[in-house]
Amino acid sequence: MSLILNYFKNKIPSLNCTSPACRKHNRFNENLSKTFTLIGTPFVMAYGNSDVHSMSAVIAKDNLLVGGVETVDQMFGLTLEEGDSFIEEEFDGILGLGFDGNNAEGVTSPFSNMVKQKAVKNPYYGLYLNRQNDKNDMGLLTLGDVDTTKFTGNLNYYNVSAVEGLYKYWMIDLDDVSINGNKLNYRKRKVVLDIGGFMTYMPFDDVVTFHKYIKGSSQDSKGFFHVPCNITDQIAYIFGGISYSLEPSDLIYKSADHDCISSVQPTIGTVVDEYSWAVGYSFIRNVYSVYNIEDFTVGLAPVAK
Fold first, then answer.
1. Which of 51, 111, 122, 213 would be 179's cystine partner, CB 3.0–4.6 Å?
2. Which of the listed CATH numbers 2.40.70.10, 3.40.30.10, 3.30.1490.20, 1.20.920.10 matches domain 147-302?
3. Average confidence (pLDDT) per 10 residues, the chain, 305 residues
4. In angstroms, what CA-CA distances link 142 with 42, 69, 174, 209, 291?
5. What CA dihedral angle connects 117, 26, 101 and 48, to 10 degrees?
6. pTM (2 decimals)?
């Protein structure tokens, strides 16, 4: 069964799920597992802003083996119904790598269990994401360690911000954004690093400011921001006084009629509060990142070219 990484919830489709999205993917047959336990607590989870991104599930428990690392009695969501947005996805399920404070029904996250059960040697994992045209390279998740061949220079560590006394998101302070050498003068912004999606979502005014510095950008009648498909602007996110460059092509979400839709768009509602952004893998794949669940820090370094 193939799983995509996500910083939030865990889910795999049950054999009893008959939604089109479930039928198109590998489903988990709990009857074949001698260690499976159905807890049965129901919950509903939305991965977007509409029903097509939602799923309904019950909590179950079984042993989990990921890349040779095994945890015992891992709780997870066994989906009974999935929205249509999952139909065309390549993955079968989702492996959550966030904090326990953001999990449903008090479930301990898989990596937290790996640390508690001493299945890994360190309380952090390293993440490298490849690009679609990287034919001889693949993304790499290193559980309990880092891969020093995937980045240049030193890892720089940033404290994770708590939300109402709990650590829920991989959220760190942003100094600013630089475009073509111009600092945009963002203040008090926090960034939630979200591997679950490609896009970056900001409050509307921040998106307007961002695209004002992108040559040839525009906004269509539906409110979406566009950029030239041959974009060459030099973009960098600044954390702790250190700039991390973004490949110009990572500002392109997909082609439109005469240009391309930007990967930076206004959020619907708020990410966490009025000062927070959700930054997807359009940025994250430009860095090697390390996530420590005991020190509550995130490490960043430019990826090795």
1. 213
2. 2.40.70.10
3. 68 91 93 94 72 78 93 92 86 86 77 96 95 70 96 97 91 98 96 91 97 96 96 97 96 93 93 92 96 97 91
4. 32, 10, 26, 37, 11
5. 160
6. 0.92
